Fold this protein.
Amino acid sequence: MTRFLQNWLLALAWLHLAIGISLPFIAYSALFAPYSALLQHAFWPGMAVPAETVEFQRWIVSLFGPTLASVGVVMIWLVRAGIRTNESWPWSAILVALAVWAPGDIGLSLMKNFWLHVWIDLAALLAIVPPVLVLRS
């Protein structure tokens, strides 16, 4: 079971890295349209959104990509350190990072009633926290 949880967390870390690297490309593709429509509805309900605003959305999402990729890199290193050292500090570091990130991200999403991000954040927490707690003990 331990090996499965370690591999699961490594896979999630690599997924963060891959999505982060992909986001700048996705933001400038047709795949961005559904997400952009949700953003527009959250921030400008019932209003026509200028092309410059959509371009700004693309840029912000692109900018978030490298940040997410860096989280993936750090998570890969922490999971590997937890596997290698069999100490609790790497797992604790992941939990602290999630405790810093999740309330702010979820809170800001709720402020704008942007439920897509809330559900993504909750899914990420459910996928990461239980295995980390098991491996930490």
Summary: The helical segments are 2-27, 32-43, 51-85, 89-111, 115-136. The radius of gyration is 17 Å.
